[in-house]
Amino acid sequence: MLFADLPVVERVPHQVPVIYVPLGQDATVLYPNIDFRCTNNTAGPITICTIVRAGLLTVRIYGKATGKSVQIKPQILKVIKGRSGSKGCVKKTMISRDVYAPSERSKRVFCVKTGSRN
């Protein structure tokens, strides 16, 4: 919900970095034990719909139109060999401190592009 400007209330990072979003922008969901929660700070109700199909996660947020649209399209920039643990911080505002366990396997680096729809 970072790109939707909805404040994060509860978020648990994955145990190791994931390849589909930058460090600090992931969230583990393992119902009913681990959940992701955010606050609806808009003037009206919102509905959050998620679909996983053929290895693709789609999250749609429905509510009053803001004209904002975000699409994450991963692109492999380069392959980096395994490294010791990492820490991530999102934006200039501290949301959380995350520590990732060391990994012996290779990681793929992706680029995330955001855009606005008028």
Automatic annotation (TrEMBL):
This is VanW like protein. It comes from Desulfosporosinus acididurans.
